[in-house]
Design brief:
- It is globular, with a radius of gyration of 20 Å.
- The chain starts with 15 loop residues before the first helix and ends in a 12-residue tail after the last helix.
- By secondary structure, it is mainly alpha-helical.
């Protein structure tokens, strides 16, 4: 069994390879990577299938990000289970359900409405995934290493999205959208096996039975503190609006959507590595809002319309995605404001709210694109993201949220 890495000192900042020596971090990392690859490949396959069948930018965007809308229902009813289920069993079961649902979506002749029904079920089940996974990460690692640990998980997301979108584009050419969905189902099954075989059986972090009432009570308690409430909004809204921009890549450039998605994943990977590995603690409180501004500003270039050169569009998407690193900084502040026995619920509320906002933004983006054009819709959402980011940054400064110490764990 690998030995835990020694704690970093001022002269020796923590390194990824030291973190991966911590027991259970590597299998959690690999299971999350397989799950991300599966969602990326399957999402691109389904979005392409729906766009070919309907020609609708709205339905295509919802096929890619629509399951996120069901996360909102899960956040209001199921999240208390994130701290009340054995994490290994929960992660393995969630991935197995996704494998079955994705395989069903590949059935020939399946109506588009039935595909969206399956997406809703998968989104509801998936609402538990973030809380279980990140709660377990917070249990495995000491809190001072959580930001680096989340950076590692985000690196997995970035690498697997780059590989997933590139592979998905190849699979669409070699196989078909339905064949691409079956590959996604196989990757979900791999994630289930990795979680089951690689993680240690642990008891739940909290006692009692999960219920919708308990979920609601904890949600209300978490959102009752103004600093926490503003942090949640900062984690959900500006980023979600930019994901709405990304949901239009297929109708904006059907033949280059895979390239744009891969470049966005590359930029996100670079931003997460820079924030998680190299930004010193004394600067973290000042960087979150500027990074979110970087996330939105490049998309203003799409106001130039479909005539925007491909190289400029690729560069804008890549630079923009580096701004997703702001979410690491906001998550670190949030974790400092919640008690240990609700850490999984708090992080699950972040993940579910973020995904729900992404789904709503994808729907908004698709609607705007049908009324105007995909490029115009991207520019409008970018301007909205900049406006919300500026307002939340002022609110966090006024509420004392920048330092992460106000509000109290139980406020």
């Amino acid at each position: 069994m690998p030995l835990p890495a020694p704690p970093p000192t001022a002269d020796t900042p923590p390194r990824y390879r030291d973190l991966l020596r911590t027991p259970e971090v590597t299998p959690l990392f690999l299971a999350g990577a397989a799950q991300t690859a599966a969602q990326t490949v399957a999402g691109l396959g389904l979005a392409t299938l729906v766009f070919r069948a309907t020609g609708s930018p709205l339905l295509s965007a919802l096929a890619l990000f629509g399951p996120s809308l069901a996360q909102l229902v899960g956040a209001l009813t199921l999240l208390s289970a994130a701290d009340r289920l054995p994490p290994r069993t929960a992660l393995a079961a969630i991935s197995a359900v996704f494998a079955a649902g994705t395989a069903l979506q590949a059935l020939p002749g399946l109506p588009v409405g039935a595909s969206f029904g399956l997406l809703a079920v998968l989104g509801l089940v998936g609402s538990l995934g973030g809380g279980v996974r990140y709660g377990l990460l917070g249990e495995i690692l000491p809190r001072e290493r959580f930001l680096l640990g989340r950076s590692v998980m985000n690196v997995a997301v970035g690498v697997c999205q780059i590989a997933g979108f590139a592979t998905g584009g190849l699979l669409l050419a070699v196989l078909s959208p339905r064949g691409t969905l079956l590959v996604g189902a196989a990757l979900h099954l791999l994630a289930s096996v990795l979680a089951r075989r690689g993680l240690t059986a642990r008891p739940p972090r909290a006692t009692g039975r999960p219920s919708a009432a308990e979920t609601w009570r904890t949600d209300v308690r978490l959102l009752s503190s103004r600093p926490r409430r503003l942090l949640y909004l900062a984690l959900w809204v500006p980023n979600g609006l930019i994901v709405g921009c990304e949901s239009l890549f297929v109708p904006y450039a059907p033949d280059r959507a895979g390239l744009l998605f891969a470049c966005a994943a590359l930029g996100m990977l670079a931003g997460d590595v820079a924030v998680g590995r190299f930004v010193p603690e004394r600067l973290r409180g000042r960087l979150a809002a500027p990074l979110q501004a970087l996330l939105a500003a490049p998309y203003l270039l799409f106001a130039l319309g479909a005539g925007l050169p491909v190289a400029v569009a690729v560069a804008a998407v890549t630079v923009s995605a580096a701004g997703y690193g702001a979410s690491l900084l906001y998550q670190e502040r949030l974790l400092a404001l919640v008690p240990d026995d609700t850490a999984g619920h708090a992080l699950g509320l972040h993940a579910s709210g973020m995904l729900a906002c992404q789904g709503l933004s994808a729907a908004l983006a698709g609607g705007l694109a049908q009324l105007t054009s995909p490029a115009t819709a991207m520019a409008v959402l970018a301007a909205a993201s900049l406006t919300v980011n500026a307002a939340l940054a002022r609110g966090l400064r006024a509420a004392g949220g920048a330092g992460g110490g106000s509000g109290g764990a139980d406020a």
